[in-house]
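Morning F.,

Quick status update on the modeling queue. The single chain you submitted on Monday has been processed. Sequence for confirmation:
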Amino acid sequence: MAERIEGRKVLRIAGPDRVAFLQGLVTNDVRRIAQGPVYAALLTAQGKYLADFFLMPGGPADPEAILLDVAEPLADGLLRRLALYRLRADVTIEPTDLPVHRGLAPLPDAPLPDGAWPDPRDAALGWRAVGLTAMPDGPEGPEGLAADYDRARVELLVPDTGTDLVPDDSYILEFGFERLHGVDFRKGCYVGQEVTARMKHKAELRRGLFAVALDGQADPGARIETADGKEAGRLGTVAGDRGLALLRIDRAGGALSAGGAGIRVMAAPSPAQG
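Structure tokens below.
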């Protein structure tokens, strides 16, 4: 199964300084792009999440560029912020109309379409591609793919932009970015690096991303409470009777509810993953 992902925007970053420019800004080691896509985020100076995205090599048709695949609602703000950071760097940053596709074909057993890569967060999520001119399996994917993809994300504890990850609010280590290969602690400085490193090495995370089962109806963003009414966290992705929730770790063990739904923890991050 494959589909074009609606609501994504691709920025083209080109110029001799493109790798060095991004290397000093984003959470991951951009030099790894020579081997394939890199998942990364841009943070505030206080270490809070602003946007997450995929960095992909331009490929044979555009070898002097890096393609940045980001959620469309965050694209304009990200473009403006990158332009502010550009200063004297010899780079160009421009939006494109390139499409983004994904597929849930089982990996590594199924062959990848030309120009596609395994999802760098977790290969069990299938593949992603920028700029495909034809679908690999005929017509655009079935209506059920988006729902299947959300269920897969829940099972793998992979947060979604906007639904789980909230700009100017989220901290990436609470959402498992180390486990999802979205942050590198050896690459050197980047915006928000000091706070992120301190959370990694000197603090015990108080919140983490959990997979939960829902008994009843609740909407993404709903407040999750303990049996005695204390705030325990926030519901994010909802996929049928399963979901993701950012929970206080010390309040994740008992009876929980969100709106009219009972909440039961199904899977939790390991302590090392936050």
